[in-house]
Structure formats: C-alpha cells, structure tokens
Amino acid sequence: MTIRCVLLDIEGTIIPVAFVRDVLFPYSRQRMASFLHDHREDHVVRQWAAACQDAIAQERGAPPSYEDLAGLLNHWIEEDRKHPGIKALQGMIWEEGYRTGAFAPDLYDDVAPALHSWRRNGLQLVLYSSGSEQAQRLLIEHTTDGNLTELFSNFFDTRSGAKTEAASYRHIVDRMALRSEDILFLSDTEQELDAAAAAGLQTTHIVRPGTRPGTRHPICSNFGDLSRADSTFTEIIAP
User: Are 46 and 125 contained in the same domain?
Assistant: First the structure.
C-alpha cells in the first residue's frame, strides 16, 4: 500500500492533551475578559464575538451584551465547545502568549524526527484539529523542536466539518486532490478514526500514555514504528 499523505490529529497524537487542557485553556480563560475589552474596536474580534452572541441567542432566546460575553465564553472553554467563534478568539489570545514566550508546545519525542523523515521521503503532511487554523499554525511554529510550519502543506479545522463525521474527511480528500486510500489518518480518538475510515481513508489509532487502545483500527504508540517494515500497520512508502 502506498501512502502519499499523512493527516494528523493534534491533541493526544502529536502533543499531550495536558498542554491544551492545562496550559492553553487556562490562559485563554484568564485573558478573555481583558482581551475582549482591549480589542473591542477590532472588527475581526467583534465579528467572532457576534457569532458567539448569535449562538447564545439561539440557545437562550436573547443575545448577551458584549460586556457580558467573556463569562459565557469562559464557560464554553470549560465545556470545550467546538464553535468556530470561541476557537477563533482563543487563537488570537494564544497568539499573544506564544509571541511573549508565555508557553511553548513540547511535542512527543518521536514526532519531529518522524515528520522530517516523512517529508524527506515525499509525503505530504496535513493537520486536522477542532482548534482553528490559526491556533494550529501557532502551535507548530513555536514548538520546543523549532518552527515546523514548512513541513505542512495544509491545515484543516471545523470549517471542514466535525471530526466525527465522514463528510468532513471527504471534504479534505477533495481539497487535497488525492484518492481517499492515499491518505493515512492518525488520531488518538476512535470515533474520529471511524469517520475517516467510512470516508475511505487509511487509519491508525495512536495510543499514547493514558489512551485506551481500541479494537477497530491498527494501533501504534510511536510514530517511528510507522516507517518500519515490521510495523503493526503497513510500511509507509513514499510516492
């Protein structure tokens, strides 16, 4: 089997979930109120804030005021809501943190060497996360392994659809102009892998510490194993 593209999840696949849960989310909660206040004249911030206000209005019957929005959005952060508005606002807040050196993503040890090897062998690398494209680019740019942005050809977020829906992966296949079977999707979440497989993609369940192994997809705990002929999956062969 020849794989031409590796589509990667982020949390629990290339970086510990704890970085998002224990670093990024608390940072955005702490900064949300001051960020909205300081950028209240920024039309992009107001656009995404309005999208959140509209969503809240649909749920509650009336939109909150701009001044009351921060508290509601912090509740969304606690729930890990996937709404594009909160993801966009979080991305802008995180950009400040990355630029000031408040934090730096520490990828799993096997990730950066494998990514560089796969690119040298001609594979396309693509990220797909519920975090916004901006948030993905910031994370990859500021890793403790350096700026890895140039290794990736595309970044997909929830504008492509939910990660547990097969239609989202069909959209990505169309955008990549490849056959679905040419793409290998790596994720720590079995439901996402199910959706990708339903769209015809190859799949491997990445089982990091704390991840429960599934039964419906090939399993791997280290990216290096995916390039070996004796892998539990299939050797990745460059096009």
Answer: no
Q: Is 121 left (phi over 0), alpha (psi -120 to 50) or beta?
A: alpha
9 & 27 share domain? no
How do the pLDDT tens digits run along the chain, 239 residues long?
679 999 999 999 999 999 989 999 999 999 999 999 999 999 999 999 999 999 999 999 999 999 999 999 999 999 989 898 999 999 999 999 999 999 999 999 999 999 999 999 999 999 999 888 999 999 999 999 999 999 999 999 988 999 999 999 999 999 999 999 999 999 999 999 999 999 999 999 999 998 988 899 999 999 988 854 334 444 554 44
Same domain, 140 and 213: yes
Are the C-beta atoms of 199 and 187 separated by less than 8 Å? Answer: no
The residue among 82, 70, 199, 73 whose CA lies nearest residue 131 is 82
Model-level pTM? 0.85
Residues 59 and 90 grouped into a single domain: yes
**Full residue range of the structural domain in which residue 213 is found:** 5-16+106-227
